[in-house]
Amino acid sequence: PQQRKLMPKQRFLAEFSQCLYDFVIQLLPTPEELAIKEDVRKLLERLIRTLEPDSRLLSFGSTANGFSLRNSDMDLCCLIDSEDRLSASDLVTMLGDLLERETKFHVKPLPFARIPIVKLSLDPSPGLPFGIACDIGFENRLALENTRLLMCYAMIDPARVRTMVLFLKVWCKRRKINSPYKGTLSSYGYVLLVIFFLVHVKNPPVLPNLQQMPPLRPMTKEESHLNGHNVWFFDDINLLRQRWQSTNTESVAELLVDFFRFYSREFPYNTSVVSIRAGILKKDSKGWLSEAERGTARERNRLCIEDPFETDFNVARCVTRDGLYTIRGELMRASRILALRPERPIVALAQLCE
Ligand code: ATP
Ligand code: MG
Q1: Is the per-residue pLDDT at 293 higher than 70?
Q2: Is the C-beta atom of 61 inside 6 A of ligand 1?
Q3: Which is nearest to 80 in space by CA: 70, 88, 72, 68?
């Protein structure tokens, strides 16, 4: 094999950062796509209001948190502001029938799922070359809150945070390690890994811990809690921009290289939990590796990522032993590719997402 000289590190990182920005920009949804999605949301809201007049249909997930790629799914949540409302499963069945009659969507109501939803899709058309896929759920107020939390993190340092997250979302999709149904991790899980890394691993940190900053005025439990979970976080981004400035000046490429290094070699998967709220935690202390239910608990808790608000919920509970093995293999592969610092950084990027 030919001997090849490594590209000087600083030059590689500078050029690779530029590559990442250029790559991510062309994957952002177009203004037309966003407008069509907003029209769809309004149309669906109008139809739902014929069943429940006091309802609102809100976007959550990537369409609302700033981490959306072109043609990503739409996550919608229906909130009903009246006291006597239909049950979620009845609503799912009725809404399913209504949409089937009144619209061109393919409709699949799942009234008896753990979280009842209606799944919708539209076939591709000239104005909408990839169609639309959309899930409508009910009363999922915690999801709206965690969407707002991620959006705030994205807004603090959009250049670095959004570029890193969007790149990793493409990477994990192309490398096929983004399917909770097949034992790997959801997009939401990957986003939490990035935020944890930027808040708790990087020193100095790139992001502050929004859930641990002192509130501007005392809060009652009524104000800070939702369904028994503390959902408070510092969400005044304008004020935060004035008061908080990261002293970390690493480029997005440096951060990415270190992200792959940390999660492929350093993070102690067997014993530890990723928590953006509290930093690194031990599985024992959360009862996620208890003797009593070791058999099942262990299989459900191979990879542990604490939900920011529902703290007894492991966002990565679907990740199996094989799934984690594959994910770690991919993280190592990515580390290796970047360590080789190819002469043209675009080649590294192409290889990463092969
Ligand atoms: P994509 O663009 O790939 O759809 P996304 O940012 O919308 O990415 P999803 O994984 O689709 O991420 O999750 C959307 C929302 O659903 C999250 O913001 C979160 O509120 C909720 N969610 C998804 N997966 C989980 C999970 N495992 N546990 C708890 N909430 C989840
Ligand atoms: Mg989504």
Answers
A1: no
A2: yes
A3: 88
